[in-house]
Amino acid sequence: MRRTGPGLDSGGDGIPLLALHGSFGRGAVFERLAADLGPAFRVIAPDQRGHGHCPPREGGFGIDRFVADAERLLTELDLGRPIAVFGHSLGGIIAYRLAAHRPDLVSALIIEDVGPVMRRPEIAHPVLDVRGWPATAPTREALAAAIEAAGVPDATYFMASAVQDPEQGGWRLLFDWDTMMEVQWGGVGDWWEAWLGSSCPALVLHGEHSTLLPAPLAREMTARRPGTRLLEFPGTGHWIHDEDPAGTARAVREFLA
């Protein structure tokens, strides 16, 4: 595994796959996926604006800014062909909006647990209110416990963005909670037009216990878009790639084969 700028790039001559993380994430959340897929696949997973080690960027955190960043990255990579794009949560919205905007860059879509609607009443809680949540702590364990005390049962996904602070000591998060509020609100909306706006093959991964992609909506989004398959993951929630990493890698491999 190697890092090229903010994010990860598994390298090699395998089939390229762009992987876009969701809110609160970073490219490193796909290290297990990259390891499971390698060396047949080259996973390119950038830290997106406001996340990880991505340097500050102008323009705010609206969804179109994220799409423009992904478009720019693929253009700069100049791989000579369209490639498959994997997107989790907000990353999935970015992925299918990119496919609608630049079909010449995207050969296939793998959308992990997000639909074409991210708003009430379809989604009970489209935005997690994280204002004022703890961002630092003396130890990694203490930071995880503080985040869980603030309102989530399991801080594992958030802790993927926790790093030691060599100057001040202790642990800190790579993102800012207020920024994450802007990021989340940027993804709220009705995105049916974008979801139906591309024609490349698509695979939707749906967690059985997901709170962000209700089962009826998952079935509707696949039924309405030609060339789209739905794959259910029993016993999982929103973070399928963490909860069933082997199954996620197998689904990606078989779909792109």
Automatic annotation (TrEMBL):
Domain spans labelled AB hydrolase-1: 16-245
PANTHER family named among the record's database cross-references: HYDROLASE ALPHA/BETA FOLD FAMILY, PEROXISOMAL MEMBRANE PROTEIN LPX1
InterPro entries: AB_hydrolase_1, AB_hydrolase_fold, Carboxylesterase_BioH, Epox_hydrolase-like
The protein's name in its UniProt record: Pimeloyl-ACP methyl ester carboxylesterase
Source organism superkingdom: Bacteria
Pfam families attached to this UniProt entry: Abhydrolase_1 (PF00561)
Gene3D superfamilies assigned to the protein according to its UniProt record, in alphabetical order: alpha/beta hydrolase
Organism: Streptomyces harbinensis
GO molecular function: catalytic activity
